[in-house]
């Protein structure tokens, strides 16, 4: 696969602007972080439902309350994941999220019965998959960023005590940044390595991806992140989070490519020239977040 310099320049310029916007949300505070992922959450849901209408035309028959209700219910899960770390007018957003989620858990099924001409279990399943695929993932990254996963923990022993000593270095603020940086590096290196030496297709789902590029991307990403980890005296976590993010992110990319191939579309949207839509940009992250969260929950608490 030869390097297409025109495409590379377009992707690079768009990525620079994208990185600037992302950095403002990632490095400022939890409030801006939450706002950033709120926008991403609703953008992903919009594109997901468009794809589902193509794949399952009957999904278009859902009521407006269903269409927007599942998005708001998913967002309520993100509010709940702030774990009392954000308050508005002395009201915890987590508490607001709990009541919105509880409300929609009762109202959505009733509204579906009253306002839908024909009940369809597949429509409900499609929305449920969207809640797990999109909303749960973004709720978990909010939970990681809030640091709540460590707040009530007691010092452990064995492997847990080994990781406890690094909590101050790689707490909630750093985990999402490490994960996102790993995915970006893996994608970039995989593209460059694959462009120069890639010959063996990785999967029929995404013919442009090669084994050489995929392996090169993972190795370079893990190598760089491990080196950074040495400077922070926390290299095991950097290594493992980079490895998990790279591998899970690759599967996330393939999964979204499969959805697009089934729907017969090139991109899920067009909000970023050269990069496609929200799902195109965050497909890797959607798979990486639950895997990294699970690693943190099991070994870093």
The fraction of residues in strands falls at: under 5%
What is the domain tally? 1
The outline comes out as globular
Radius of gyration: 20 Å
| Biggest sheet statistics | 2 strands, antiparallel
| Total beta strands | 4
Question: Could you give the order of the helices and strands?
Answer: HHHEEHHHHHEEHHH
Give the rounded overall mean pLDDT: 84
What distance lies between the first and last C-alpha atoms, to the nearest angstrom? Answer: 44 Å
Defining key terms:
301 residues; mainly alpha; two-stranded antiparallel sheet; 11 helices; globular
Overview of this protein structure:
The protein has 301 residues and is mainly alpha-helical. The chain has one domain (5-299). 73% of the residues lie in helices and 4% in strands. The chain is built from eleven helices and four strands. It has helices spanning 5-27, 30-55, 64-80, 93-115, 121-146, 148-151, 159-164, 174-197, 211-231, 235-263, 278-299; strands spanning 87-88, 91-92, 201-203, 206-210. A two-stranded antiparallel sheet has the order 1-2. Strands 3-4 form a two-stranded antiparallel sheet. A hairpin with a 2-residue loop joins strand 3 and strand 4. Helix 3 packs antiparallel against helix 4. It is globular and about 55 Å long. Mean pLDDT is 84; it is low at 151-170.
């Amino acid at each position: 696969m030869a390097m297409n310099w025109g495409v590379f320049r377009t992707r690079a310029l768009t990525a620079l602007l994208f990185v600037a916007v992302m950095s403002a949300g990632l490095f400022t505070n939890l409030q801006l972080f939450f706002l950033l992922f709120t926008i991403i959450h609703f953008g992903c849901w919009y594109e997901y439902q468009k794809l589902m209408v193509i794949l399952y035309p009957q999904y278009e028959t859902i009521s407006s309350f269903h269409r927007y209700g599942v998005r708001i219910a998913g967002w309520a899960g993100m509010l709940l994941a702030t774990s009392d770390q954000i308050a508005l007018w002395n009201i915890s957003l987590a508490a607001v999220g709990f009541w919105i989620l509880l409300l929609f858990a009762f109202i959505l099924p009733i509204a579906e019965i009253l306002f839908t001409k024909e009940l369809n279990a597949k429509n409900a399943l499609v929305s449920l998959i969207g809640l797990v695929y999109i909303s749960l993932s973004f709720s978990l990254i909010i939970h990681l960023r809030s640091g709540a996963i460590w707040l009530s923990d007691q010092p452990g022993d064995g492997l847990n005590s080994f990781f406890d000593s690094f909590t101050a270095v790689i707490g909630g603020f750093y985990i999402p940044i490490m994960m996102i940086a790993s995915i970006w590096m893996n994608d970039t290196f995989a593209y460059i390595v694959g462009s120069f030496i890639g010959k063996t297709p990785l999967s029929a789902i995404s013919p442009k991806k090669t084994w050489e590029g995929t392996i090169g991307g993972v190795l370079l990403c893990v190598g760089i992140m491990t080196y950074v980890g040495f400077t922070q005296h926390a290299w095991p976590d950097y290594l493992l989070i980079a490895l998990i993010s790279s591998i899970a992110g690759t599967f996330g990319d393939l999964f979204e490519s499969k959805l697009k191939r089934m729907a017969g579309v090139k991109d899920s949207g067009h909000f970023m020239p050269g990069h496609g839509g929200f799902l195109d940009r965050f497909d890797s992250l959607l798979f990486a977040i639950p895997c990294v969260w699970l690693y943190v929950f099991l070994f870093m608490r």
